[in-house]
Design goal:
Helix content is 78%, strand content 0%. By secondary structure, the protein is mainly alpha-helical. The protein has a single domain, classed as Up-down Bundle (Four Helix Bundle (Hemerythrin (Met), subunit A)). The longest helix has 29 residues, at 46-74. The radius of gyration is 17 Å and the shape is elongated. The structure holds fe (ii) ion (2 copies). One fe (ii) ion binds at residues 26, 63, 67, 124, 128. One fe (ii) ion is lined by residues 26, 63, 67, 124, 128.
């Protein structure tokens, strides 16, 4: 499945990593991404569409922070590289938001915005899922430790 199909089809349970907060944020991402895509093709006022995008950007910042905290808690070995990728994705999202702010016609930003949303969806599907074995292992380790006490 390519990135385009990923975000068009939305959330699937096999994307779950086993943490309720992060999974809820990932699920919401697909809903919000679709909302932005549809809004860009609609005749909604620009100010309203920018509100969706600002809210999306704020949620992304919170999500990346929460996900990195989780990775730290479970001892995910790829944390440093993952943080760098989050920084790149956040910079691209901020850049796209500024392009939308400055655009006279939002539909001109549709391709760039779609490319961004696809890249974010691919990050969930190909990078974030690598945390899953560690969230599971951390539960087992916690039980083992508790059992030995
Ligand atoms: Fe994520
Ligand atoms: Fe991530």
């Amino acid at each position: 499945m390519n990135g385009n199909a990923l975000w068009q089809f939305g959330w699937k349970d096999d994307l779950a990593i086993g943490d309720a907060t992060i999974d809820a944020q990932h699920r919401a991402f697909f809903t919000e991404a679709e909302q932005i895509r549809v809004a860009l093709m609609s005749d909604e006022p620009k100010a309203r569409i920018l509100e969706y995008c600002a809210s999306f950007l704020a949620a992304l910042r919170v999500h990346f922070h929460d996900e990195e905290q989780l990775m730290g808690r479970v001892g995910f070995p790829g944390l440093r590289d993952h943080q760098l990728e989050h920084s790149r994705l956040l910079a691209q999202t901020e850049e796209t938001y500024h392009e939308l702010e400055q655009a006279t016609c939002l539909i001109d930003c549709l391709l760039g915005t779609r490319a961004l949303l696809e890249r974010l969806a691919e990050h969930i599907a190909h990078d974030d899922v690598n945390i899953r074995p560690y969230t599971g292992e951390s539960d087992v380790r916690a039980c083992d430790t508790a059992g030995r006490r």
